[in-house]
Design a protein that fits this description.
The protein has 553 residues and is an alpha+beta fold. It is built from ten helices and 25 strands. It is 22% helix and 22% strand. The strands form seven sheets. It has an eight-stranded mixed beta sheet with strand order 2-3-1-16-17-18-22-23, with helices on both faces.
Amino acid sequence: MQAFTRQLGRESGVQLNPLVDGSEVPSVGNEDQCFGIIMRATRGRIDRPFKVSRGDVYAKLGRGEPIRTNALNEAWVHVVEALNNGAYEAVVQRLSTSNAKIKYALVKLTKTEGANPTSKYTFEVAESLPTSEGFVLGVKHLECFNDGIKLELHADEVLDDDADQVGNDVLTLRVKDPDGNTLYEFTGSLSPNAKDDYGNSYYLPDIVAARTTNVEVTVGVVGDNAVIVPDTAAYGYNANGFQNWAESDTLICFEEGGTSYTTQDYQRCRENLQYTQFDFSYISSGGTQAPALLAQLAQLAFDTNKQLRFDVPGNLSVEAAIAFVEQLNMGANKTAHLLQAFWTPLKTDDPTGVNPKGYFGTATLNIAYACGRNAVKDGKGFAAKNYPIAGREWQVNRTGITQTATLRGPDLDKLAGAKINPVIYEVYTGGGRYVFYDSLTCAKVESSYRKLISVADMSCSLDDMISRAAKDFLQLPMKVAIQRMNAYLKAVFEGAESAGWLQKSTDPQMGGNAFAYSVKESELNPMDQMIIGYWLHYDGVARAIFQTQTITR
């Protein structure tokens, strides 16, 4: 007999209350090792974002198509390269138009009459499910493979009391890619009342719904017809003892509907990425040159307080590159420090091997290096974000590189004035290499920390950490919330200072400290509003070094 009760009334006894966890502190995940992107792909859902990792990028995004057939295909190269160079995951919103169609793959039972009647399972594609019973299964594959899918069907043999084969309502359904790789396998019943040994629904559509949201299955047969019939390719075993499978040819169940995207298409994709449940800290342009898409990405950066790193076409001259950025007018954005431009006048081999030698943007590669850097944290959970992804240690690791632009001092000055970071050849101790030459944001300032990418990186990280912690403290008593926020800010800022993010300030109002903060009730609405303010002095970056030699006698 137990020695306690959970709820004690007027009787004598011991009430043991549930464990109170006072050890938990706000924490962060690995979102700073992930990036978001809006891109064209040949595979992937079109209705909402999905995650892609190094291990499943080909399965989820397809094998990629040549850029010479469509410039939008460069984004695929960016994603694959990034996942191979430090990015943990990409959160992808696939571009689509209103003309895109997701069709059904239908499984039908075809019977022939005559002296020797036969039955056969056939497969076809339809835009909608038949209104009357005329199909066994309808399969809707929401991952939208341009290259199609294959279906396979099998049911074990079932014998009656006379040892004759009878129909089996339990079947196994496989969904495969065109190469025969199994994407999904489900086993369930065609009967809506079927239960498993634990009393759970064994109805095939319910089994599918419980396993994935990427496939929808509808059963089109009822009653005695809701079985896989004997003497078909989907039933039983062959003479060699192997399972019989009814197999389809490749079924093209998705029509992309063209690639002429409108502003409304870009806006819809931007909103999907903004409100996704998946976390990411960087936004990639995927090499796009579409002003409408770049404008939506800049809006996404503002709405989410995440950095957008975008490419200026590498085949442009210095003047044309500057004109490209100026016509985007990124500096007018309210959070221009979150926007960062990279110009790569380099012809290189395609890092994925799909395309011939050409110009490939490096903004996503820069993000990948940042993600890899962020994976290494100190004892307090801070990565070396005060080190920008630029300079000697961050070289472009592609092959067959040829620089197609000769840059002189005035050219580099013009690029810096336009807030463009060139990716070019530089000479260091130990030889030369192709590197990210500068680390400027698009903020139209000259003497401000806002012009430094490293400051944007640290600033975004701290804002994100603090806003997430503040959400944890919502709906607590005001005094408790203020106490917890004060304790949290103290720990965070001390950690940032020890990591080298913050340095002692010379501002008299800072009193020689690297940070200051305030947490208090609102004077106007003290009953339910808490006001948080913090003042931080970030470490800068040695972008320019002035050297003088003096000869003495």
